[in-house]
């Protein structure tokens, strides 16, 4: 919450008090609970987005989501491009395009396969980042376990098709790129300014296809409101919660908790969308979760952490 309440310049004894009260309220919540709330928020936002796919194509939902997230981040961070080199600007532009690809791919995947399956496959991205460069057999075993889980998902039936898996793999690759680019952006831009610029680039990149496919739907206030809600639930709110939690917990613990995301996605898909998974698919999700936790614990000294837009 602290990120969201720091948008203004407090006057003498004025807006500073509500901001301090909000930070104090969030500070009273255990960091593990903040992470879990963030994960649930992301997946509830995804379920809301999937409910829109019947009348609002995935590309249009992505465009509205990124636009909403960009507006919030720009208002909070108030980024400036002054003093940055062309290399900095090129890097943050690539970061923004990666955000657009990651969001577009996972929504295209969710339009074709259950949420829990899509998020599980997508989670291969941060898993690979966690073990990259490792020469330990144990880390390779975690990757093999996760790969076996994905094979079970791909062959498990229950509404899973090859194109949906393919889009999820593309989202995984983009997520891996997102993690590296996010770290570079943090080093070159102060605060959340770089992320705000990147999210704006992503929104602009996603807009043409979203508008072309969404058409008249963009004139429907209710659909736009739902799309904005997706942006807040899937981006702005969880980012704020995770930022506050990371101030009070080691990155390794954060990464382990984030490994629960595929299971939460499956549960939200079951409750909100009625997406029933077979036992084989639950076993596959368990394989990826165990592999993610194992790789993260083993990579603690390398400081590998999982991050999402």
What does this structure look like?
There is one protein chain. The chain is mainly α. The chain has one domain (31-302). It has helices at residues 16-27, 31-52, 58-77, 86-110, 115-122, 124-131, 137-154, 162-188, 193-214, 221-246, 251-258, 261-273, 279-298. Helix 5 packs across helix 8, helix 7 packs antiparallel against helix 13 (279-298) and helix 12 runs antiparallel to helix 13. The longest helix is centred in the middle third of the chain and has 27 residues, at 162-188. It is globular and about 45 Å long.
Can you tag this structure with a few keywords?
309 residues, mainly alpha, globular, disordered N terminus, Membrane protein, EamA_dom, cell membrane, transmembrane helix, membrane
Compose a concise summary of this entry.
InterPro entries: Diverse_Substrate_Transporter, EamA_dom, EmrE-like. The longest helix has 27 residues.
């Amino acid at each position: 919450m602290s990120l969201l309440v720091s948008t203004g310049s407090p006057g003498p004894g004025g807006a500073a008090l509500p901001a301090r009260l909000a930070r104090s309220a969030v500070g009273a919540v255990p960091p593990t609970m903040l992470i879990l709330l963030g994960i649930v928020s992301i997946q509830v936002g995804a379920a809301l987005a999937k409910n829109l796919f019947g009348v609002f194509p995935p590309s249009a939902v992505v465009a509205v989501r990124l636009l909403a997230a960009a507006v919030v981040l720009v208002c909070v961070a108030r980024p400036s491009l002054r003093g940055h080199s062309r290399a900095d600007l090129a890097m943050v532009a690539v970061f923004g395009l990666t955000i657009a690809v990651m969001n577009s791919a996972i929504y295209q995947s969710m339009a074709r396969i259950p949420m829990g399956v899509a998020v599980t496959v997508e989670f291969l991205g941060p898993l690979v980042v966690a073990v990259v460069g490792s020469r330990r057999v144990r880390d390779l075993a975690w990757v093999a376990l996760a790969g076996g889980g994905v094979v079970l998902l791909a062959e498990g039936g229950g509404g899973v098709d090859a194109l949906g898996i393919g889009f999820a793999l593309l989202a995984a690759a983009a997520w891996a790129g997102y993690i590296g680019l996010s770290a570079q952006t943090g080093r070159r831009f102060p605060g959340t300014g770089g992320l705000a610029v990147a999210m704006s680039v992503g929104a602009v990149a996603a807009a043409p296809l979203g508008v072309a496919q969404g058409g008249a739907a963009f004139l429907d206030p209710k659909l736009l409101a739902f799309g904005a809600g997706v942006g807040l639930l899937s981006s702005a709110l969880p980012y704020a919660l995770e930022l506050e939690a990371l101030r009070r917990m080691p990155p390794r613990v954060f990464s382990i908790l984030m490994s629960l995301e595929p299971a939460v996605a499956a549960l939200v898909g079951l409750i909100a969308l009625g997406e029933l998974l077979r036992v084989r698919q639950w076993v596959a999700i368990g394989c990826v979760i165990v592999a993610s936790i194992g790789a993260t614990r083993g990579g603690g000294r390398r400081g590998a952490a999982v991050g999402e837009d």
